[in-house]
Design brief:
Number of helices: 3
Radius of gyration: 20 Å
Structural class: mainly beta
Number of strands: 25
Shape: globular
Strand content: 35-45%
Oligomer: single chain
Low-confidence stretches: none
Distance between the termini: 71 Å
């Protein structure tokens, strides 16, 4: 009788493990291959070789690019080099990226930039918020941009017990923001277990010097985050749910769910077209290729444009897609005045004329 019970338990555990593995592969879109969608006027951006994970563009056409992310479990082509912030002026006919100098006193050696967001104050001061992972911890660095000097002045490092595994931020004030925690755990083994089991313990946090609180929860992996042009809604990408959530923002900074748009790809960072309000997102068609990097079969790239997301049937358009021969692991796409910038987690960046 004892052997029968043991055999039954083993069978049950094996069945559960197989079910979890299948669900894990489905969340990664492990079987998906893509058909190419080409853009005619694109060129790789010189000087960016090891990532352009997030991009944010000011109204005057200056684009900030975070580069050099080292993230647990993901490929890095320069694991021993510190990260950088690049600047591009999209008004120039031959726009090029140049590294921004960072003020003395900031620990450049451990700089590991991830998601970024800009905020322009009433006096036209430009603040840059940068998610940083020094020594695989999570902080948010606040900088002031000095355009005349092409530099960033570090103002402060923000740490909090609720900011445990920060992926992206969207600034809503000179010292306040919403942040996504893409995992509940920070230890790599526990993170993998969290992903494998499909735990929905990821969340969104509101931060200000006066108040810090969880404002949304229940995500597989909350990733990119942004705000609508009218400042009424917060958009959140749940990368392993293949979805974009629309949340209504309230006066007390709390969020309530409005709708969820399901996609057939893993949406990463979200950008908002400053003219139309459309959402642009860099996506991973097959997440398994991103997690298990093979140079002979690299992760592909995909860019989606989402129009009228509040409508009953928003329009989703594949603007760009290719198999990784040009661009590997697209994480962001953002537009300015007929120009499109496409960034990647650890690879290069693309500049296109639409």
């Amino acid at each position: 009788m004892g052997k029968v019970v043991v055999a039954a338990l083993v069978g049950i555990l094996a069945a559960l493990a197989a079910e979890r593995l299948l669900a894990f592969r489905n969340r990664l879109n492990a079987a998906r291959e893509i058909d190419p969608v080409a853009l005619p006027n694109c060129q790789l951006i010189k000087g960016i070789e090891v990532g352009s994970e997030d991009i944010d563009i000011l109204p005057n056409g200056l684009a900030f690019i975070s580069s050099g992310l080292k993230y647990q479990g993901l490929k890095s082509f320069a694991p021993d080099n510190p990260g950088e912030i690049f600047l591009m002026d999209l008004n120039e006919k031959k726009a090029k990226a140049s590294e921004l100098r960072i003020s003395r006193g900031f620990d450049l050696a451990s700089f590991n930039p991830h998601g970024i967001s800009t905020y322009i104050d009433k006096d036209d001061t430009v603040y840059l918020f940068v998610v940083n992972h020094p020594h695989q911890k999570s902080t948010v660095e606040l900088f002031k941009f000095i355009e005349d000097d092409n530099s960033l002045v570090h103002l402060k490092t923000i740490r909090h017990d609720l900011l445990t595994s920060v992926n992206d931020v969207v600034a809503v004030g000179p010292d306040s923001f919403y942040a996504t925690n893409d995992h509940y755990f920070s230890d790599f083994i526990l993170v993998f277990l969290e992903m494998y089991l499909g735990l929905t313990w990821s969340n969104v946090v509101f931060y200000s010097p006066r108040e810090v609180k969880e404002v949304a929860a229940g995500f597989y992996s909350a990733n990119g985050i942004n705000i609508s042009l009218d400042k009424k809604y917060i958009y959140i990408a749940d990368i392993f749910d293949h979805s974009v959530h629309v949340m209504e923002k309230h006066a007390d900074w709390n969020l309530t769910h409005v709708k969820t748009l399901q996609l057939d790809t893993l949406a990463d960072n979200l950008s908002v077209d400053p003219d139309t309000g459309d959402i642009w997102t860099g996506c991973h068609p097959n997440g398994l290729k991103l997690l298990y990097y093979d140079p002979d079969n690299p992760p592909a790239s995909e860019v989606l444009r989402i129009q009228n997301i509040l409508d009953e049937q928003p329009m989703v358009t594949r603007v760009y897609a290719e198999n990784g021969s040009v661009l590997q692991g697209t994480s962001v796409a953002t537009v300015y005045n007929g120009k499109l910038l496409i960034g990647t987690v650890f690879h290069r960046a693309l500049y296109c004329e639409l």
